[in-house]
């Protein structure tokens, strides 16, 4: 009984956390202004992609269910992260209430994890299209794609809520300064003054589940794709099949390279470098994903032209 009362007396849940941001770097407000412009362009781009998919019935295929979900996750992630970051650093609101910080963490990590799993869903589409072209419409259906994406959402939300639940059992009796630009899970649990071993475990488990495992699945899929294409005699057919993968491969490289560097180096990376890597990983893919899909996907380009022609015709008829 005395041990329980002593735990209650020593358990300290802070009223707020302090987000430190960059350490010792002058004129960093220009960097946050840059993030603002990236945010505006990414919002416009992802809204445009979602609108095109909704307006064009030809794009309501299983593949574009995954593309729509990717655009939605990019939009949600940008809206959850950038406005809050700008509020903290441009308007000097460094003190973030405890519950707000955990909510901030939830949306950031959920969207970051869903971006990786969306790439897995798109990889499945390419794998089936190239390895089983005659059975593609049987193996990639709306039901399968919706089920896959729903499972991904539920799995990610459950894991992130588990990580947050473990944070709520921590006592913060010393510093409440988070050396990051957002409520970073890895930085928060290290501030605790009671046992944080479960948090340490989950901080290493989640990157394995949402970064390394998706990357292994994607790499394995492309090994299978490469083997299948090697059996194709006509070089022109091989090149044509590879071109259908260029957009997806570009997204994989843009997303995984900086974030894997950050999580692989762990505590060995300088806090400022960690902030730059994570912030660019959070905002650059949502910026480039719509551009890449518009440039590399014939269906979306054709759909945009059709929609624009339809609008021009309606304007002429009105006149």
UniProtKB/TrEMBL annotation:
<dbReference type="GO" id="GO:0005886">
    <property type="term" value="C:plasma membrane"/>
</dbReference>
<feature type="transmembrane region" description="Helical">
    <location>
        <begin position="67"/>
        <end position="91"/>
    </location>
</feature>
<dbReference type="InterPro" id="IPR000725">
    <property type="entry name" value="Olfact_rcpt"/>
</dbReference>
<feature type="domain" description="G-protein coupled receptors family 1 profile">
    <location>
        <begin position="45"/>
        <end position="293"/>
    </location>
</feature>
<dbReference type="GO" id="GO:0005549">
    <property type="term" value="F:odorant binding"/>
</dbReference>
<keyword id="KW-0812">Transmembrane</keyword>
<feature type="transmembrane region" description="Helical">
    <location>
        <begin position="247"/>
        <end position="269"/>
    </location>
</feature>
<feature type="transmembrane region" description="Helical">
    <location>
        <begin position="275"/>
        <end position="295"/>
    </location>
</feature>
<keyword id="KW-0325">Glycoprotein</keyword>
<keyword id="KW-0807">Transducer</keyword>
<feature type="transmembrane region" description="Helical">
    <location>
        <begin position="7"/>
        <end position="25"/>
    </location>
</feature>
<feature type="transmembrane region" description="Helical">
    <location>
        <begin position="209"/>
        <end position="235"/>
    </location>
</feature>
<protein>
    <submittedName>
        <fullName>Olfactory receptor 1-like</fullName>
    </submittedName>
</protein>
<feature type="transmembrane region" description="Helical">
    <location>
        <begin position="103"/>
        <end position="124"/>
    </location>
</feature>
<dbReference type="GO" id="GO:0004930">
    <property type="term" value="F:G protein-coupled receptor activity"/>
</dbReference>
<keyword id="KW-1015">Disulfide bond</keyword>
<dbReference type="InterPro" id="IPR017452">
    <property type="entry name" value="GPCR_Rhodpsn_7TM"/>
</dbReference>
<keyword id="KW-0716">Sensory transduction</keyword>
<keyword id="KW-1133">Transmembrane helix</keyword>
<keyword id="KW-0552">Olfaction</keyword>
<dbReference type="InterPro" id="IPR000276">
    <property type="entry name" value="GPCR_Rhodpsn"/>
</dbReference>
<feature type="transmembrane region" description="Helical">
    <location>
        <begin position="31"/>
        <end position="55"/>
    </location>
</feature>
<keyword id="KW-0472">Membrane</keyword>
<dbReference type="GO" id="GO:0004984">
    <property type="term" value="F:olfactory receptor activity"/>
</dbReference>
<dbReference type="Pfam" id="PF13853">
    <property type="entry name" value="7tm_4"/>
</dbReference>
<dbReference type="InterPro" id="IPR052921">
    <property type="entry name" value="GPCR1_Superfamily_Member"/>
</dbReference>
<feature type="transmembrane region" description="Helical">
    <location>
        <begin position="144"/>
        <end position="167"/>
    </location>
</feature>
<keyword id="KW-0675">Receptor</keyword>
<keyword id="KW-1003">Cell membrane</keyword>
<keyword id="KW-0297">G-protein coupled receptor</keyword>
């Amino acid at each position: 009984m005395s041990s329980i009362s002593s735990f209650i007396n020593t358990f300290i849940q802070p009223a707020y956390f302090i987000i430190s941001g960059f350490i010792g770097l002058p004129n960093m407000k220009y960097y946050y202004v840059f993030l603002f412009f990236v945010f505006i362009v990414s919002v416009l781009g992802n809204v445009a992609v979602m609108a095109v998919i909704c307006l064009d019935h030809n794009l309501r295929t299983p593949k574009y269910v995954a593309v729509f979900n990717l655009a939605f996750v990019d939009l949600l992630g940008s809206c959850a992260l950038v406005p809050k970051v700008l509020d903290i650093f441009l308007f000097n609101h460094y003190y973030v209430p405890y519950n707000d910080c955990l909510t901030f963490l939830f949306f950031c990590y959920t969207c970051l994890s869903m971006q990786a799993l969306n790439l897995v869903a798109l990889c499945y589409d390419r794998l089936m299209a190239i390895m089983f072209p005659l059975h593609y419409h049987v193996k990639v259906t709306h039901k399968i794609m919706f089920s896959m994406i729903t499972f991904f959402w539920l799995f990610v939300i459950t894991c992130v809520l588990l990580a947050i639940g473990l944070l709520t059992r921590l006592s913060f009796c010393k510093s409440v300064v988070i050396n990051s630009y957002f409520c970073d899970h890895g930085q928060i649990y290290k501030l605790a003054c009671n046992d944080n071993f479960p948090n340490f475990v989950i901080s290493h488990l989640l990157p394995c589940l949402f970064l390394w495992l998706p990357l292994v699945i994607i790499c394995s899929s492309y090994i299978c794709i490469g083997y299948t294409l090697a059996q194709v005699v006509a070089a022109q057919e091989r090149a044509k099949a590879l071109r259908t993968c260029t957009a997806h491969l570009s997204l994989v490289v843009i997303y995984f390279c900086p974030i894997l560097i950050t999580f692989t180096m762990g505590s060995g990376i300088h806090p400022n470098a960690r902030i730059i890597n994570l912030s660019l990983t959070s905002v650059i893919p949502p910026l480039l994903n719509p551009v890449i899909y518009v440039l590399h996907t014939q269906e979306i380009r054709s759909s945009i032209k059709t929609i624009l022609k339809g609008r021009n015709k309606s304007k002429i008829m009105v006149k």
